[in-house]
Protein 1
Amino acid sequence: MSRPQVLVAMSGGVDSSVAAALAVQAGWDVTGVHLKLADTPAHLQVQGKGCCTLADADDARRVADSLGIPFYVWDMVEQFQQAVVDDFAAGYAGGRTPNPCARCNERVKVVGLLARARALGFDALATGHYARVAGGRLYRAADRAKDQSYVLYMLGPAELDHLRLPLGSLTKPQVRATAARLGLRTAAKPESFDVCFIPDGDTAGWLERRFGRRPGQVVDAAGRVLGGHQGAYRYTVGQRRGLGIATPTPRYVLRVEPAAGRVVVGERAELATAAVELDRATATDGRGLRPGPAKVRLRAHGAEVACQVVPLDDPAQVRLDLEEPVDAVAPGQAGVLYDGDLVLGGGTVAATIPAA
Amino acid sequence: MPYLDYAASAPLRAEALQAMLPFLERPAGNAASQHGPGRAARAAVETAREQVADLVGAAPGEVVFTSGGTEADNLAVKGAVLHRAGPAARHLVCSAVEHHAVLDAAAWADADAGARVALAPVDAVGRVDLGGLAGLLEPGRTALVAVMAANNEVGTGQPVAAAAELAHAAGALLLCDAVQAAGLPGVDMGRHGIDLLALASHKLGGPTGVGALVVRSGAALRPLLHGGGQERGLRSGTLPVAAIAGFGAAAGATIAEREAGGAADLAALRDRLLAALRTVEPGLVVNGRPTGGAASAPPDPPGAPAIPGLPGLLSVRFPGRLAEDLLLLLDRLEVACSAGSACASGAVAPSHVLLAMGRSPAAARETVRFSLGHASTTADVDAAVAAVRQALQVLAPSEAVG
């Protein structure tokens, strides 16, 4: 039997470097590909920060050289810009808190790349994500702290049958140790940042450069004006800092109303959410989310909460009745359903129903 | 492994390797030294200088060795601009399909040396529009006109002699980048009125790291590199004797091939490739107007280019197929060819040449360049065609990534 032909996505970080190395060790016929996702001129790139710098492409190439595998760089700047960066900005402009990593996996890094790999005759795509695939189902990673199943929930059988996640059973320290043992030059590279296209981490500043100032009012639930702001897009549900208002007790952002330019704030107790509605809901088994009990995660590294899955008229939507209230659920974030380690699926939070 | 990427770099010729070895194996002399080893080095350099001069119809004293084609183009563009006293007389006209070594040097002159740069348009096959070029000239102010001999991406030959006449009438020098076209019948300094001609050794089957700018005597340039005053003060630096000897030998071998009618043989091989590719992909579209036969392109307009197209080059579009994908599959099948030019990260960027010819970015991304040369064989061509057939079977048409 011929060896499986596997394309490995190599970002230039330690995780995907080790994924590639393990793919080679597994005896697969491995080809590396680095996705160029940004056109940032080299002299503007922050060394060692963010992703997609020239240094990252060089690191990926040198790791591929040391593994003796062919390596290519694919320009996916346009797809990334449209599907991820523009979508991220539009989310904030619409008062939501998008998850760009989930979006990127859905449109570019995993689903998009896998389609291209399959079109090129590869049997599978391997990535450095921390999650496990077994029997065509998606499971959480052994390393709970690094688990990335949350940003892969949208995968279905068509993808999972052709996805290899070599790091799923390893811990991050084991991955670093493997990289060091193999002499990979990325062994000691720092962790990448949450939003790779905002390397300085200043999301508000990034949005302001994109949208300009859009002054508006900070109000309470009754509509009383408590203060002003420079752009509703700067605020996210649950945010306490930067409201610019003086109140006897702390105030939190309850919701963002970009059309009216209003940021609605209230007491911490008012953040409690009893139920959420997900849209673009998908199931990893491809058969739809089933009604009944499950656990849900509403934040990348948030706690899991027991819930009941309630179908809605639209098959692409479900309501999740939370068994205990969750604070500060932001529309736009992913809601991901679990049964133990098994990822059932998930969707995007479209609406929240307060507890009180 | 079938190698069809001569336009990127040609394999080293046996003659070039033989010419280099003595200077790598023995204690190397400095060609500027007065002792025996120095004289031997100097003799090798001067022999090479004569061979290179012969290749392009120049006098040996007009050959200035450089580190390659890029440096030759930079010396020509920047040296001509800097020779002009002030910004008013620092005007440049380049064809829109020049190599980046010319275009980016001109962009530098524009940004950092007070020069102004105008790009002359090209027609659908990539041939410079002489009327458009004439309209851009500013007599007394234009310092340099750059029109390459034949385009490295699509193979189209350029009306260099006519461009030189226009340049001279405006008081400008004519730079002809002949990096890709050197060795073609007719690439000749005197015949085309060329003032500055750029060459790269490795495109001829010599080593990388060496090239030349041929500077017609009387053409005034400012040097870019200062130091020991080598190369008539135009290019300081100890000469790389072995590399220059290899360059000279490659030039000599190229001349011998030219005299034996090598261009026709190469065109026949290229036409075999094209005919076979058409049977594999009937929708194939040929870009540009490489010379010598079956390439279906519009005929030359009156006043045909004095320099023919590249006989070994074939730029073709596979509609609905990303060149990047085709290249990966061909590489997996051990066939080497190319698509556009690579950016700093190594990704394939849409070719500025194809865009200047009016192609859409999408069409540019579907274009593959095959290029043949001195050691190409029928077997290489047939193996490449078989690989393309296999690759196209893998790729579904129009399957884009969303």
Protein 2
Amino acid sequence: MQTVIKNAAKGRIMKNSLYIVIVGCGRLGSHLANQLSRVGHSIVVIDSNEETFNDLSPEFSGFRIVGDATQIAVLKQAKLKRADVFFATTHGDNVNLMVAQVARKVFNVPHVLARVFDPRREQVYDQLGIETICPTAVAAEMFLMAVASHRAAAGDAKS
Amino acid sequence: MKVLIAGVGKTLFFLCRNFTAKGYKVVIINQDREECVRLARQLSALVVCGDASDATILKEAGAMDADVVLAITPNDQDNLVICQLASIQFNVPRVLALANDPDNAEIFEKLGVSAFSTTHIVGSLIEQRASLEQIINLMPVGEGRVNVTEIMLDADSPVSGKLLKDVILPKNALVAVVIRGNQPIVPRGDNNLLAGDRVVLITLPENHGAVLKAFTGERK
């Protein structure tokens, strides 16, 4: 397993292929893993529950690690030092915030993104230089935009 | 002094009992409603039921004017976030996180949060008390990168009766002080070592074992 992961980090399939580590293989994590693997990136997925790997598509060519990502030993196993991109997509905000900080500040991964459900927590971690995506805030924005564009269209039609 | 403690179980209970007995103002944050009721009955502390990594709960617990926030939950990620919120959003002057995984103690320090590991502490206590009886005191300094160890030399010690310059020490180790009777001596090469001396050693974790062996011999 170790040597296989090493090869994933070293031997990139294509020139622009990125080495991407994803923590949390739920709906979002597995979706990202499947899509990124399909376009040729090298992917390592970490989840503490082995069953979640069932959501990976049959074409998924990356690697799976069963383990708790809040233990640094697990992140080391994923060869995080060589990662270009890191996603934290578990269901726990605090887990995501912790592993994202570790990836950014201990392993110096250049691009780190964390999903954070609680919009209030998002602000604090902006201050700490961790890029976060809050699904609630994103969805709210989309809804508001949809309403605004609908009204604009209706307004145009009236005038 | 006002102390905010987020945690569970017996450690939390006894710690709070200890702090309230000393006259500290203690606020407990715990997620379990039943445990909160029990704690409120047994302790003269304010108990807030909720998630301490939620800023509104920290605010309710009075984080604004807390002197210390202590996060000792069983989840390292929660302890980290609680301490970061307390120091960033509420400017709490001192925050301290428990690292359940001992590796995380160093990680938390790197992320700007003071941390401790009970595994480290209990481990060094056991080494100090049980494994080598001659070791009187063992104190890690510099985040555990340096050990200060006090040992008692007896007649069987391979260095008893030798001049310090004749004692072969591993690299990066130092005999800092020799205490003979009540007299501390900062030794030079021409000082001798005698049975009954208490010797204070500065070592690094990587040479600690070898230095101790040089002073106590091979026995267990």
